[in-house]
Amino acid sequence: MLLLLIELRTSLEEHQSALELIMSKYREQMFRLLMASKKDDPGIIMKLKEQHTKELQAHVDQITEMAAVMRKAIEIDEQQGCKEQERIFQLEQENKGLREILQITRESFLNLRKEDVSESTSLSALVTSSDLSLRKS
How far apart are CA 21 and CA 72, in angstroms? Predict the structure, then answer.
């Protein structure tokens, strides 16, 4: 997503530069044409100014729209990043809890095993002494 934003920004900057160059050349040519054909006609001058203003406004609107799209893309990207960070935090907490449960289970299992070993040792001693008593009798 970040790469897309960088590409959009670069594209916007290139578009603005190209637009500025084109409009500059256009104004120069229109000015030369105006001077060559009808120097004193205010109607033509006003028409050219209006036409230039409309074209310039259309380009400004287009650039503004592109900037709004870029801002929205950045906002969405930031929201997505926050959601991912939140999810990572939740998973880390869950992992920590599961590890604690596993540790408790291990300790309980080891304690039970020790008890089983000591009980079997006691039973073994009882069985052996019972066997000896029975054999003597």
Answer: 28
Block residue for tokens 């590409």: 7
Task: Please check whether residue 70 is in contact with residue 12, taking contact to mean a CB–CB distance below 8 angstroms.
Answer: yes
- State the Cα–Cα distance between residues 50 and 84, nearest whole angstrom: 51
**Residue type for 95, please?**
N
pLDDT in tens, 35-70: 777 666 677 677 778 888 888 888 888 888 988 888
Query: How far is 115 from 122, CA to CA, in rounded Å?
Result: 10
pTM, to two decimals: 0.43
CA distance 33 to 51: 15
